[in-house]
Amino acid sequence: xxxxxxxxxxxxxxxxxxxxxxxxxGRPFSSYAMGWFRQAPGKEREFVARITWNTGYTLYTDSVxxxxxxxxxxxxxxxxxxxxxxxxxxxxxxYCASDLRGLxxxxxxxxxxxxxDYWGQGTQVTVSS
Length: 129
What we know:
Elements: E1 2-7, E2 10-13, E3 18-26, E4 33-39, E5 46-52, E6 58-60, E7 68-73, E8 78-83, E9 92-99, E10 118-119, E11 123-128
Parallel strand pairs: 2-11
Antiparallel strand pairs: 1-3, 3-8, 4-5, 4-9, 5-6, 7-8, 9-10, 9-11
């Protein structure tokens, strides 16, 4: 069993920054990739960013490109999401997720929630205007 625990959420003014962290624990952790998703009230969960565990290849949704940076620490089994230039529309619960089965290696699945198999409990990010 794999556990993912997010931290670092909070309340910040527009234009500010937050750094989210996701710590993976459980069985020896070997993931193809890790992703961040978010879900705002009344909206569906949406893809934010993904990083390939071995190569560090990254993928972002268009709305966060140039503002968010995903990174990983293989030794510590952590994945971070640095969020700069935050906007009120970034307000959501942010979730990290792991792809242990390798489903997201297919380009068309990289941003699909169903391709990720373990999820954290989420951390709230609120951006005030």
